[in-house]
Amino acid sequence: AQSVTQPDIHITVSEGASLELRCNYSYGATPYLFWYVQSPGQGLQLLLKYFSGDTLVQGIKGFEAEFKRSQSSFNLRKPSVHWSDAAEYFCAVGGNNDMRFGAGTRLTVKP
Amino acid sequence: DTEVTQTPKHLVMGMTNKKSLKCEQHMGHRAMYWYKQKAKKPPELMFVYSYEKLSINESVPSRFSPECPNSSLLNLHLHALQPEDSALYLCASSHGGWGAGGMTREQFFGPGTRLTVL
């Protein structure tokens, strides 16, 4: 079965600074990768997804992610963080009739 | 309409109560999901319905009973719950049905029902 690791439980960045959230996956076939964001007490919203093709994918709210097969990674980036980006971020991998979420990374944005 | 709605938003129930959670979508999605999410944890898949038929039950206790009355509605009936069942219950849906590649599609999530069992 597939698995996902998000090494960083909590990250704090200053508003306007760049952001990178790490995600590593384990899956034997071509992975279907997702990044979701969850604000407190809310459901999950899809930021972006990778199925195939260009390994740099653009998402909503200015986020992008790069798929690196050699490193089994799918890191999420944003060049300039806004205070409204403070939330929980989940990386997920789909396949084999299963969807596995990473443990999540909580993002705090300092003024 | 591109959203998944869930009612109620909050629910408090005793261990002997019977209650139901409701989920609705009008996007024509044929796969619908229930997830359980404990505080500071990722969502855990409970059930998957595809074309109104139960496709996956992730070894969920029988005190949780899902129902899919039609292609737009998904219910979760609760009975004799335990305090450890307190969590955020999320509903999601995706295009097409389950089958091959079901878990490769983007899922649209509702806002969840915050359940507290006393």
Structure keywords:
heterodimer; A: 111 residues; globular; B: 118 residues; mainly beta; 4-stranded antiparallel beta sheet; 0% helix
Structural write-up:
The complex is a heterodimer of chains A (111) and B (118). Chain A has 111 residues and is mainly β. Chain A has strands at residues 3-5, 10-14, 19-21, 24-26, 32-38, 44-50, 56-58, 64-68, 73-78, 87-95, 98-101, 105-110. Helices cover 0% and strands 55% of the residues of chain A. In chain A, the strands form three sheets. In chain A, strands 2, 5, 6, 10, 11 and 12 form a six-stranded mixed beta sheet that branches. In chain A, strands 3-9-8-7 form a four-stranded antiparallel beta sheet, with no helix packed on it. By secondary structure, chain B is mainly β. In chain B, a hairpin with a 2-residue loop joins strand 7 and strand 8 (73-79). The mean pLDDT of chain B is 90. Classes of the chains: A mainly beta (111), B mainly beta (118). The interface between A and B is medium-sized, with 23 and 24 residues.
